[in-house]
Design brief:
CATH topology: Growth Hormone, Chain: A
CATH architecture: Up-down Bundle
Number of domains: 1
Radius of gyration: 19 Å
Structural class: mainly alpha
Strand content: under 5%
CATH superfamily: MFS general substrate transporter like domains
CATH class: Mainly Alpha
Helix content: over 70%
Number of helices: 17
Amino acid sequence: MKAIPLNSAIWRLNIATMLFFTLVQMVVPLIPRYALVIGASPSMIGVAVSSISVTAIALRPFFGLLSDKWIRSSLMILGVVLASISYALLFLSTSISTIMIARLIEGAAVASFIPSSIASAIDSAPEGRVGETLGWRSLMVGVGFTVGPGLGGVLSQFFSYRVTFIIASLLLLTLIPLIQTSKTNGEKSLGGIYVRGLGNKYFLTAFLSLIIYAVAWMGLITFLSAYLKLLGYGDIEIGFFVSLQALSSLMLRIIAGKLSDKYPEKTTYLSLLIISLSFFMIYMLITPPYLYLASIVFGVGVGIFIPSCQTLALGRQRGSVGFLTSIYTMGMDLGNLIGPVILGLIVQYSGNYMNAFLIPPILVLTAGILVLLISESIL
């Protein structure tokens, strides 16, 4: 098989994607902890963390349609600029309301950047190698998720949250020269193609699975971070937890991508079972260092899930990729909107974080069963 040249536009976009997520993940795990420091309640922390999804959900379809008509790299640049503005506002924030505004802007940033990045990877994929190409792109994302939280934890520990926010804001702007292309996106798609793609059984299965996974994970990480801080653990511990799971996820992304070209349903089902197991382990092994074992298992599951679920949703789609990608990735936004709010309410009204931590593994197990039923043509 012929490899993509190292000097090609797709590899520049791969590197830009990796650095974008590195800088984003320097900031995101710190937001609930920063909100806790300035006196926000658990429910308000959940609302603030979830507010990113309001603009992301509202704008993803628009940016997806635009991505099919315009140059995808231009939308990636717009996403970088908006993320930089968001983190500059976090640097200036002293109240939960300002944090919410910053998260709303960040939602517009991810709505612009992420679908165009995934769609550009699908555009470049040789016939029959969509899963493998998505595996490489998700590997770049995984590297960002690996490096970013640890780097953010160290910076915030030795400097401050606000210094970390402004560093991320400034460094994001340096990505713009990397994001370049001289090509448009090829032929335009008609509305009927959009509708047919959305009604595809495999697309709907992957979309629902992503929503359930995102509800579970975003709710869990929001309050696991806050819970560990209440127990006296510093920023480095939660940063290491997130970085460790991201690191362990890197090992299987390319292999999972290749396998998902042939067996997307089976690899998606397997990954959800592993993730559910890891969430049960988090519930049982809630504090470091035992928590890190669960983090490794979770990373393995995520490393299989991301390229597999993307291939299940998009591997059979060759038209309107930008629009369909924007709808698919909206699953993360819905999860981010719902998960922290639900778990925040459980924590607030039960007075017990552990009650909330039991919900995510059950949700993900349910998603795995759904994919199994679809793959066996029971539904």
